[in-house]
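Researcher: Structure prediction, please.
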Amino acid sequence: MFTYIMLQYITILQNMGKQFTENDKKVLRCIPSKLAIKYGCTPKHVSYVLNNKSSLNTTLAQNLNKDLIFLLDFFKPLTQTVKENLK
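Model: Predicted structure follows.
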């Protein structure tokens, strides 16, 4: 159990401060307002985290970054090979 928790923590630390590309930002373009409602902050704050203008020294910014990474993985289009395997 401890090993699993440490692996999760290491994964989170590696993803912290992820530099979102322009394509990533296009995929996440409608997300800031939804995450702002979830966390009770402004959409501008979420946009700052998305555009790497906010440092991740608060729990809120870290949680926003973690959710943005998760949503990016969720919304990324399927690759051609995966689409072919689904047929």
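Model: Residues 59-75 form the longest helix (17 residues).
Researcher: Thanks, that helps.
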